[in-house]
Amino acid sequence: MSLFESFGQFGWLFLLAVLVIIVLIKTAVVVPNQSAYVVERLGKFHKVLYAGFHLLLPFVDVVAYKRSLKEQVLDVPKQTCITRDNVSVDIDGVLYLQVITPEKSAYGISDYEWGAIQLAQTSLRSVIGKLELDKTFEERTRINQEVVEALDAATAPWGVKVLRYEIRDITPPATVMEAMEKQMRAEREKRATIAESEGEMQSQINRAEGARAAAIAQSEGQKQAIINQAEGEAAQIRTVATATAEGLRIVGDQLGNDGVAAAQLRLAEAYINEFGKLAKTGNSMIIPADVADAAGMVATMTKIIKPGQGLSAETKKTNA
């Protein structure tokens, strides 16, 4: 056998080996986890391959599309939206979606990611147009929810599920920002003024209530002091009267149970003591002519003690 014939035989074997390798490469397919391959047979959709090892018909079956089943994060570029009160704001956001049906995402739309971003922008403009500027800051949750609902309904034929949409930033024009800052500053100053006036009012109320309570307490104290003084004077008068009565009783017992005689003795003593005091308090004084007639004075006072006895005939006639 010549060298040429030997080389030709080995060449056919080499070509056969290369062909077998190509066939194996075209036939054997390993699909990674959380991935899906869309297979076409002779240019027509055949089936979807999920994670694992698969064999295809060489030169007949072709992997046309590869899809990731993981949740995807898409950046929605900043766009200008006009609010209900005709204020333009720049808004950008983030879109979260996931491929549910790989064949629909392959044949339902040419580029589902680009389509989802465009839908998110148009839906956001529609939602913002229904709200006033102040509401766009307060109702982000509502805006996100409405955008997700609109996108979910539109992307269902694409085999894509929109999970979330989040507004990342809302930027009003500079003039609007300045006006909002002035409004916020005025609102803060208003709240501070109100709080200060309420504090002053409460302070005045507290001082008035304190003065009222002090006045009431003082008047109660004065009232109680007067009551205590009156009770003390009454007790003193009762004590003096009791002691006087007891003294008169003892003197009367000594005089043979004659209470009038005891009273006469007491009146005489008082009469003499009072005139003695008058003599001490001044150098000049006016006294009756019969000042030495203490017995007459005592007799007169006795008539008051014992009415009806020792009255003159003229007095009795007058009383009759």
What is the secondary structure topology, with strand pairs?
Layout: H1 3-27, E1 28-31, E2 35-41, E3 44-49, E4 52-55, E5 61-68, E6 71-82, E7 88-99, H2 102-107, H3 112-128, H4 133-138, H5 140-155, E8 160-171, H6 174-254, H7 259-281, H8 294-305, H9 313-319
Helix pairs in contact: 3-5, 6-7, 7-8
> Which residues form runs of ≥5 with pLDDT under 50?
307-320
- Order of the strands making up the biggest sheet: 3-2-5
Task: Look at the helices and sheets and give the structural class.
Answer: alpha+beta
How many helices? The count is 9
Average of per-residue pLDDT values: 80
Give a structural overview:
With 320 residues, the chain is an alpha+beta fold. It is built from nine helices and eight strands. The protein has helices at residues 3-27, 102-107, 112-128, 133-138, 140-155, 174-254, 259-281, 294-305, 313-319; strands at 28-31, 35-41, 44-49, 52-55, 61-68, 71-82, 88-99, 160-171. β6 and β7 (88-99) form a beta hairpin. α7 (259-281) crosses α8. It is rod-shaped and about 185 Å long. 11% of the residues are buried. Residues 307-320 have low confidence and may be disordered.
